[in-house]
Amino acid sequence: MRALVSGGAEVCLYYENLFTRQEKDIRAISTRISKSEVIPEANVTILQYAGWFPLAEKFKTVKGARIFWYHGVTPPDLWGTKIDQDLLIRSRFGVKLVHASDLAVADSPFGSEELERLAGFSRDRIRVIPD
User: What is the pTM of this model?
Assistant: First the structure.
């Protein structure tokens, strides 16, 4: 986000529920939006995906270029308790949202391989950019 802003891009960050970032520059461009609202049109939309959430489904219908930025999802069988295990299962299935994108970004080579394996997304459409 900061790289885009420093390059002169107009950036809007939309979130659905809990937003924990405290930095003033990030808060200034952040807007809470419900899953029933329309996401405003943009030249580029980047979906930050570390787990499924209802607003993520809107990614399929936004106009403009779409980038799926994958941060990995903990395998449900590695989760120590049954609490939130269903969300992890849904999150692994939700990785298929990547097929609505023009390009995917993974934050590691492992994430790139996981995205290809879980979603069947072509490796030539995935770029690795470490966090």
Answer: 0.83
